[in-house]
Specification:
single chain; 118 residues; alpha+beta; Glutaredoxin; 2 domains; four-stranded mixed sheet; 4 strands; 14% strand
Length: 118
Amino acid sequence: MFTILTIIVVFLLFILYIKIKNWNKKRHLKNLKITMYGDENCPFTVKMKNELKSNNVFHYIRYVDVTDKDGKIEFEKHKFEGIPVIYSKLTKKSSVGYFPYSKCLVNVDNKFNLKNQM
């Protein structure tokens, strides 16, 4: 009986650890205040959006369509060289072009690495 109870407690603590770890990563991602600039007619923008969606992080990112009047004005202020762009307002770093999910986050904040994927 004691062994079963110990196994259950260890399992529950492991689950709690995983939940807290993921919550901290998501909170950090929100704090980065990431904006993605793109154009729905650009295949790399579509690929990047799909990459972020498949990793369940797109809803933490503000998307700006550069073909929209206001989006174009905002995009031009930054003087980026192309699209898609992942930009962190917190770190002032950006990633231009398509990159796998983990790589584009490392480009805007080196605290993210392959071990920190959500």
